[in-house]
Amino acid sequence: MPHLSDISRGFIGLPWRYLALSLVLCLVLSALGFKRVVYFVSLGYAASIAAQAIVMPILYRHTLRDWVLIQSALLLAYGLRLGIFVTLRERAASYQTEQADNAARGAAVRGPMKAAIWVSVSVLYVLMFLPALLTMSAQAAGHAMPSTPVGVVLMAAGLGCEACADWQKSRFKAQSPAHFCDVGLYRIVRFPNYFGEMVFWCGVWISAMSAYQTPLAWVLGGVGFICIELIMLGSSRRLEVKQASRYGADATYQAYARQTPILFPVVPLYSLQHLKGPLG
C-alpha cells in the first residue's frame, strides 16, 4: 500500500490555509452581486483581486521582495483600476442604456442561480490569483523564480494596454457617443482592452511557472488562466455581435471590421461569431 506521504505529495507546495482565506475574501466581496447581479463580475471581481493583492503580501511580508513584490503591486493596481473604471463608467451618460439592460437581465436571475454564480465566480477569482500566491509561497521557501520577471513584464504590458484602451474609448465616447471607437489602439485591434486583459492574466500564469511544484498546482493554476482567457474571448464575441447590430449598416464600420483584427494584433482574425458554441 502507498505511504500516506506518497498520497499527499500532490498537495505539497499549496498553501491551503491561505487559499481558504482567499476564498472567504472573494465570497464576502463578490456578495455585492446580490445587490445587482452584474456586480458579481464587475465590482465584486475588482474588489476580490485587489483584496487578495493586499492581504496575501501582508501575510508574506517578511519574505516578499523583488519581482514577486512587483507582481503583487501590479495585481493591486489591476483591481483598483478596474474598480475605479467600473464606478466611473456607471455614471457616464453613454453607458446608461447598457446599464438598464444589465438591470433587466439581472432581475430575471433568482436566488438559487445567484448563489451558484456567487460561489463559482468566487472560486474563479481564487484560482486566477493562485499563481501569484504560489510565487509568494515559493519565494518564502527559498526557491529560485526565473519565470517571474518574464511574467511581470507581460503583466505590466497588458495592464498598460488595457488602461490606455479604456481611457481612449471613454474619451472618444464622451465626444462621439453615437460612433464606434476607431482611434488610438482601436486602429490596431477592435478590442484592445480585452486583448490587454488576456495578456495580463497570461503574464500572471507565466510568472508562477517556476513555482508550480506539483501536478495539482499546474492544474489549478491552469484552470484559472484558461477560464479567464475563454471569458475574454466570449466577451469579445458578444461585443462584436452588439456592434454589428448597432453599426452594421454603416459602410465605414463595415470597412473597419473587415480590415482591423478583432483581438490579436497582426493575426488576420476578423470575427468570432462562428465560435458561438464554445464561447456562448
Description of the molecule:
The protein is an all-alpha fold. The chain has one domain. The chain has helices at residues 4-8, 16-30, 43-59, 66-91, 96-107, 111-140, 147-175, 192-207, 215-247, 251-259, 276-279. The protein is globular, with a radius of gyration of 20 Å.
Measured on Cα atoms, how large is the radius of gyration? 20 Å
**Biggest beta-sheet profile:** none
Q: Count structural domains.
A: 1
Mean pLDDT: 89
Could you give the count of β-strands? 0
Helix-residue proportion? over 70%
pLDDT < 50 stretches: 1-12
Q: Which sequence of SSEs, written as H and E, runs from N to C?
A: HHHHHHHHHHH
Strand percent estimate: under 5%
Distance between the termini: 46 Å
State the helix count. Answer: 11
What overall form do the CA principal axes indicate? globular
Helix/strand structural class: mainly alpha
Task: Give a quick set of tags describing it.
single chain; 280 residues; mainly alpha; 70% helix; globular; disordered N terminus
Summarize the structure.
The protein has helices at residues 4-8, 16-30, 43-59, 66-91, 96-107, 111-140, 147-175, 192-207, 215-247, 251-259, 276-279. The chain is mainly α and 280 residues long. Helix 6 (111-140) crosses helix 8.
Write the layout of secondary structure elements.
Elements: H1 4-8, H2 16-30, H3 43-59, H4 66-91, H5 96-107, H6 111-140, H7 147-175, H8 192-207, H9 215-247, H10 251-259, H11 276-279
Helix pairs in contact: 2-3, 2-6, 3-4, 3-6, 4-6, 4-7, 6-8, 6-9, 7-8, 8-9
